[in-house]
Amino acid sequence: MNRREALFSLSSIVASLAVAPQLRAKELHNVPLSTQMSPDHLPQPAWQQGYQVLISPLDRQNLAAIFDRLIPADNLGPAASEAGAIEFLDNQLAGDYGSGAALYLAAPLHPENEEKIMGSPQFLATPKERYLTGLTALENWAQKNHQASFHTLTAPQIDEFLTNMEDGKIDLGREVNSQDFFELMLQNARESYLADPIYGGNKNMAGWKMIGFPGARYDYRPYITRRNENLALIPVSLIPND
Fold this sequence. Notes:
Elements: H1 3-8, H2 14-17, H3 25-29, H4 57-70, H5 85-93, H6 96-99, H7 114-118, H8 127-146, H9 155-166, H10 178-194, H11 206-211
């Protein structure tokens, strides 16, 4: 798998993850703000809150080992964990995403029709529950098959594991579908690399710089007519200036 190309394929999600903030209006284009926000109400970066779900250092190490193979460091940018993937995921799992607030979690009336009609199974567990159960199963697998923690495995061993996991060939026990867990981790690793840095990932806007995304700017009107031109815009985050 060309994982860097897989990341590029998701660059379209950036617009939904980086909403243009009013806080940048005056700073960028000298446009007066319609409302002023006091420092007490400014959004705070996710990493300032500390770990809330991924409390176990072992879980974080094992996740970093996986995320850094999904998005490894190269000449285009840092590895996923270096760009804050673990902080991003913890922040998401601690909120509405982790609790499945947007998901329908009641059991289907006819489970046998779930995959046939919908194309994929319905998960009754929340993302937070899926991660905590999956990480325990992941460590148990490594201890059983390698007599060591997962994060101590070599890069080729992890790549082989992930390849088999993606193909559904890894047995992580009755409670964890390895293929579905792989897809969940890959999705979140990508999101962490492209979301606004205020959510914990994409540190120093590494992902945005890599794909040339100018960030959460207040107004693009000065650039609308400048087509086919490299504007060399410095990315802007939702994080307020100190």
